[in-house]
What we know:
By secondary structure, the chain is an alpha/beta fold. The chain folds into two domains: 2-138 and 300-330, Quinone Oxidoreductase, Chain A, domain 1 (Alpha-Beta Complex); 142-277, Quinone Oxidoreductase, Chain A, domain 1, CATH 3.90.180.10. 28% of the residues lie in helices and 27% in strands. The protein has helices at 39-45, 132-136, 139-152, 169-180, 192-200, 214-222, 237-243, 265-269, 283-296, 311-320; strands at residues 2-6, 13-17, 27-36, 61-69, 81-84, 87-88, 102-103, 115-119, 123-125, 160-163, 184-189, 205-208, 225-230, 244-252, 274-277, 302-307, 326-330. The strands form four sheets. Strands 3, 4, 5, 8, 9, 16 and 17 form a seven-stranded mixed β-sheet that branches. It has a six-stranded parallel β-sheet with strand order 12-11-10-13-14-15, sandwiched between helices. Helix 4 links the parallel strand 10 and strand 11. The longest helix has 14 residues, at 139-152. The chain is globular, with a radius of gyration of 20 Å. The two termini are 14 Å apart.
Amino acid sequence: MKAIYLEDINKPFELIETPRPEAGPGEVVVQVKAAALNHRDVWIQQGRYFIKEYPAILGSDGAGIVTEVGEGVTEDWLGQQVLIDPTTDWGDRHNVQAADFKVLGMPEAGTFAEFVKVKAANLHPKPEHLTFEEAAALPLAGVTGYRAMFTKCGLQPGERVLITGAGGGVALLAVQFAVATGAEAWVTSGSEEKIAKAIALGAAGGISYKQENWGKELKKAATGFDVVLDAAGGEGFAQLLKLAKPGGRIAVYGGTTGLIQLVNPADIFWKQLSIFGSTMGTASDFANMVQLVRDKQLKPVIDKIFPLEETEQAMRYMEAGKQFGKIIVKVGE
């Protein structure tokens, strides 16, 4: 089969021929139709991920058709169009993942290949209203946004939520989830064009974090937020504390702009804020996310689709940070 191969840290992704995987007990083989990129893949290429097992076939997000089932797996799965939950071994504690928690694409071979082997328990029927490309855009971004927004922060209909970094896959799905469940979504971005596109998706408004005094200006416009979802950290985090309403909830699921600085503890304790760390999600978070997408007929935003052999170019495109939505690798017809 064809697959995208990463030989070592800082090496380019290459197209290779490699043996097709075989399903073991409790496993299936999925013919991948589409996969999606995540920043995790770039970090692995740069050697910034906590697991470093090279060479590797990356790719966490994928959708396709089941072509083989292993011992103990019902043959009803054969020929089914499926979406893959890329996480395993969360553990027994719903509030935090276990030490051996894993994500598809390292250490196990991932979805940047014509076929991938996964546990049958990680399969979900593909929502019928989605193409393979749209379905592949869901897994990591969708479960991350769903857990942060609903499981951790408990967003309710009628509440106001601020989602930072509009343009990224998690942020845009979070906007769609919030609007679909009756919340009022606002966004930040460094691009006025991306803010306008987020408003077209249903966001009530937004502001550029490049604007002087953006926090004060946003508070004038929106008066405050019940929930804040942040993937940036950095100096701007102090503004999020001021924007949160008394009793507000903040979920941090990334740190793209670095260390959190210049935080006044009084902004946290006097307003009785709750700050949650969140990363990816449990099997039930994933199932609930897929059900929400199915019930509300939501479609992830796709920025660009690359053929499998251009995965290296797709990575560089994502690294440039100009996308609005998910970047997809089309694997099969």
